Amino acid sequence: DAGITQSPRHKVTETGTPVTLRCHQTENHRYMYWYRQDPGHGLRLIHYSYGVKDTDKGEVSDGYSVSRSKTEDFLLTLESATSSQTSVYFCAISGLSDRVYGEQYFGPGTRLTVT
Amino acid sequence: GQQVMQIPQYQHVQEGEDFTTYCNSSTTLSNIQWYKQRPGGHPVFLIQLVKSGEVKKQKRLTFQFGEAKKNSSLHITATQTTDVGTYFCAGRGSQGNLIFGKGTKLSVKP
Question: How much is the pLDDT for B80?
């Protein structure tokens, strides 16, 4: 497995609280991604990064923000968590420098529950 | 927006039977990737197809990319209990992002 870790692995939080999920890679890959996975929806892209301080929105970015101050870290923040953000969150990195043809390697996931 | 449809959603087979999952896109794809996710695990990259009509094999798994580059399939011959999991296809969207199908969940009865 690629060197990708996610923290925390599990979190329960209350509606309205801020939450930050961290993705850390040791592969020095340029591209990093945040997905959420929900039953019946598969994997949906939230945000991605193509370099330090370079990020862009994905398919389901509303309610989420990201930051990448170092190559190895990509943070996902829920400014004010809602129950609809209860999900499993996966971080991924691209295996090649060319994003168009690069396969993605996924972290172990973070299970977030918003009560 | 661009979508990748995958069928069936679920498939239950007896061990030793074959299994096929299909992936269809409304637009031409530059390439298609397949991933497997074991229960409780994370998606793991299996293979990428790039050329029109391409066929690739990995042991009992056969992957095909359609001539029009709008569809793909994954076929598993003689399933084993180790094949259990959800299989996702993912196609490249017009902006370069991967668009995942919703997956086919395979269960294998020993």
Answer: 97
Two structure tokens written together for B92: 């490249």
Among the listed residues B58, B56, B52, the one whose alpha carbon sits nearest the alpha carbon of residue B71: B52
From edge to edge, which strands make up the β-sheet containing B61-65? Answer: B4-7, B19-25, B71-76, B61-65, B55-58
Instruction: Please enumerate in sequence order all residues whose Cβ is within 8 A of that of A53, keeping only pairs 6 or more positions apart, or say none.
Output: A68, A69
Residue A96 pLDDT: 61
**Interface touch B100/A99, C-beta < 8 Å:** no
pLDDT tens digits, one per residue of A62-111: 999 999 999 999 999 999 999 999 999 999 998 665 556 688 999 999 99
Locate A57 and state its tokens: 């929105």
Residues 6+ positions from B22 with CB-CB distance below 8 Å: B6, B7, B71, B72, B73
B43 by Cβ neighbours in 10 Å (0-12 / 13-18 / 19+) ranks as buried
Q: How many CB pairs under 8 A join A and B?
A: 46
HSE-CB of A34 using CA atoms within 13 angstroms: 32
CB contact under 8 A, A103 and B45: yes
pLDDT tens digits, B18-46: 999 999 998 998 899 999 999 999 999 99
